[in-house]
Amino acid sequence: MTIPANSNATLAERDLRHVWHPCTQMHDHGEGTVPMVPIVRGEGAWLVDAEGRRYLDGVSSWWVNLFGHANLRIAAALADQAGTLEQVIFAGFTHEPAIRLAEELVRVTPAPLQRVFFADNGSSAIEVALKMSFHYWLNRGHGEKTRFIALSGSYHGETLGALSVSDVALYRKTYAPLLLTPLLAPSPDAYEGEPGETPAQTAARRLGELRTLLERHAHETCAVIVEPLVQCAGGMRMYHPDYLVGLRALCDEFAVHFIADEIAVGFGRTGTLFACEQAAVSPDFMCLSKGLTAGFMPLSAVLTTDEVYEAFYAEYNAGKAFLHSHSYTGNPLACRVALETLAIFRDEPVLERNRQLAAHLARRLAPLREHPQVADVRQAGMIAAVELVADKVSRRPYPADERRGLRVYLHGLQHGVLLRPLGNVVYFMPPYVVTGQELDLLVDTAIQGIERAIAD
Description:
Aspartate Aminotransferase, domain 1, 15 helices
């Protein structure tokens, strides 16, 4: 029997002849352990494969999609821009979409963030912030400041600088000889709190430990970098906003920068437009990407203050310019898409609807708190996570090589749902256009997958 040229099997076979996929052991696909799924179109919260099978996108396609696949409003803005200006060098030239986007980002982010530096993706934004922080101190006569403080369990990207301030062994271990060595502050992760300790108390204790670290190392430290409220790729670890309040105060006291990596948690994910808002703090650098373009185009931005900007503003011969560039910096297509994304937040009650969806998701997940193999159910707005363990009392995890999360993933695919657990953490981060009924499907399928995963 001849297999159609546009079938799932044919497309997967063609893919595996040439394509090398990210964050993937290709042997899984090459030997048929894990299917390669060819997607030909998207519709709202759904992805559709080559044979018409539909998959509810429970992870927003790696946390980028906000307003649904093939969103007509954003697509129209992209098409309009494509017929006007697709790209122009961003050194010495500018264009309306980038100017308007910078103005809008300054308007919606916390004061005193006033300056916007564009890049291509999240890791690039982290690289910009790290280099800019170091270079600021160098320009101010403090070249001894060369180190960064990150949280244990942190993840900030996979380019070498971003990986240097990450602490997830899966990503870091192999490349450790190539990386900078960060100072690690204990994470305020509420799941790791002492028995009987509230999340706020855990945050306070961890701030005390951060203070001790700064007392020893502030003289050589450029910045502290954190993901506000949720350490996403580190296992959807969540912590109390009080930590951000204390962090801002400590950074001011010890003269180090505060870098907020809002790449995954920004644009409404945690219940406010930006996670830092829940602590009423403003960082020295805010890194944005993912939801910035609602999943349509690669783009990132680093926002900083006039004080930082002025440390680079000098005569050419002073040699203080920030020399960092990408060919597609400030791409007009991406900027126009980002503007339309922000316009949707402005024109529609997105955050209000998200709060209703988050409450629905919380109700549906609540019974899992009593599950004998669930140690924790946690949530921050439109991010929720379920921690699977081998033993609930001791919180002993399942061995990583048992790949229990993979069983949840495979069950989801078989039942038309895209779930992609982080190890033994089953998480939910759907597009904002998801309905209550679709959330029910998402949770029901995850619960069934969990039962499959824990079966021996």
